[in-house]
């Protein structure tokens, strides 16, 4: 039996399972998925869990079952590509013939003193739960600082505003305008929503230090009763510790077939992979589709295609609370209720196909 090991139960490896099971998995191949959680987590919805507008149950999806699919729950500590072994804290190591690494990302603190120790996170379900308890136990009128005005920061700030209308929310953005890389129409719409809902946007910010209740922005000290960090990501530590080639962002350089350039049995999917596009659930799923194609051909000893099609992303959708949203779909800007309904529909379809 060949043994395929999937590290991480995120969007990429869930798509690998969806494509191989139940009918495409060759009879001589078994699969082991290793994850710290006994369920797939909808990471794109952690902002709502942290804000307190949805329950923990809403961000969990049951893993599929199959007679040749095994689950191991624990923390991966090391990937030994020489011995083809996965090391797990407190457990026996797991051998593999083929490996798909989808261990996701962690917060990147850019060397800012105190940022890791004194801020909250929404990068894992465990950290999002902790952030939820902190934010929703704050006294009335407390100040929440959110560092980073990308998609995660924007969605957290807007959802928290709907959850806790009494809080004072400050969203710190490094750029001259929010969503600086997006069309100005989208930027203006989101900025207007925050103005109407009393969320303060601090543009051109530069956080130089984070104390337990103070953000240092340039030379100014700003009091915050809780600070949430959404200002950048990096590959998980296990991947960062691997002896592999990486790009300037620390993501692993891969071949056109999504495997390590010097090892055709190790594939990298999702946030850890160096690709032209920014990391996203869509991109991880697109990679996974191609990885399954390559695996099936290699297992059958069939020639690989000279090239793989470019992964096409349908767009990006963001929410502003439960009734409004924004996005780019087929390079067209959409705002308001339509954008929010589209995002809700995408989420429903994902749960329907994976739940």
Helix content: 25-40%
Q: Give the radius of gyration.
A: 21 Å
Tell me the structural class. alpha/beta
Would you identify the regions where 5 or more consecutive residues have pLDDT less than 50? none
Q: What general outline do the C-alpha atoms trace?
A: globular
Extended strand count: 23
Largest sheet strand order: 5-2-1-9-20-19
> Could you tell me the mean pLDDT?
96
The biggest sheet amounts to: 6 strands, mixed
- Helix tally equals 9
End-to-end separation: 28 Å
Beta-strand residue percentage: 25-35%
Describe the 3D structure.
The chain contains 9 helices and 23 strands. By secondary structure, it is an alpha/beta fold. The strands form 7 sheets. It has a 6-stranded mixed beta sheet with strand order 5-2-1-9-20-19, with no helix packed on it. Strand 15 (214-217) and strand 16 (220-223) form a beta hairpin. The protein starts with a strand and ends with a helix.
């Amino acid at each position: 039996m060949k043994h395929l090991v999937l590290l991480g139960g995120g969007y990429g490896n869930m798509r690998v399972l969806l494509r191989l099971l139940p009918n495409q998995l060759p009879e001589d191949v078994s699969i082991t998925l290793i994850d710290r959680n006994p369920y797939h987590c909808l990471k794109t919805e952690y902002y709502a869990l942290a804000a307190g507008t949805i329950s923990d149950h809403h961000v969990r999806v049951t893993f599929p079952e199959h007679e040749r699919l095994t689950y191991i729950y624990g923390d991966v500590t090391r990937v030994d590509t020489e011995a083809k072994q996965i090391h797990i804290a407190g457990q026996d190591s797991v051998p593999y013939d083929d490996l798909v690494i989808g261990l996701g990302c962690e917060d990147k603190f850019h060397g800012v003193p105190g940022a890791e120790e004194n801020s909250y996170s929404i990068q894992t379900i465990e950290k999002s739960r902790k952030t939820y308890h902190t934010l929703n136990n704050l006294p009335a009128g407390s100040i929440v600082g959110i560092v980073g005005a990308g998609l995660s920061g924007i969605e957290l700030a807007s959802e928290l505003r709907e959850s806790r209308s009494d809080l004072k929310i400050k969203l710190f953005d490094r750029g001259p305008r929010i969503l600086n890389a997006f069309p100005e129409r989208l930027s203006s719409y989101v900025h207007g929503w925050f103005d109407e809902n009393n969320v303060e946007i601090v543009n051109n910010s530069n956080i130089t230090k984070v104390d337990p209740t103070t953000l240092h922005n340039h030379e100014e000290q700003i009091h915050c009763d809780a600070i949430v960090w959404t200002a950048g990501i990096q590959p998980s530590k296990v991947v960062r510790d691997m002896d592999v080639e990486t790009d300037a962002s620390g993501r692993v350089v891969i071949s056109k077939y999504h495997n390590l350039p010097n090892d055709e049995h190790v594939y990298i999917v999702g946030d850890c992979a160096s690709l032209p596009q920014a990391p996203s659930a869509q991109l991880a799923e697109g990679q996974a589709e191609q990885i399954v194609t390559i695996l099936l051909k290699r297992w059958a000893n069939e020639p690989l295609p000279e090239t793989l099609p470019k992964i096409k992303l349908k767009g990006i959708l963001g929410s502003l609370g439960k009734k409004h949203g924004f996005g780019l779909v087929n390079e067209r800007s959409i705002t308001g209720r339509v954008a929010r309904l589209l995002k809700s529909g995408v989420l429903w379809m994902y749960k329907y196909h994976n739940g």
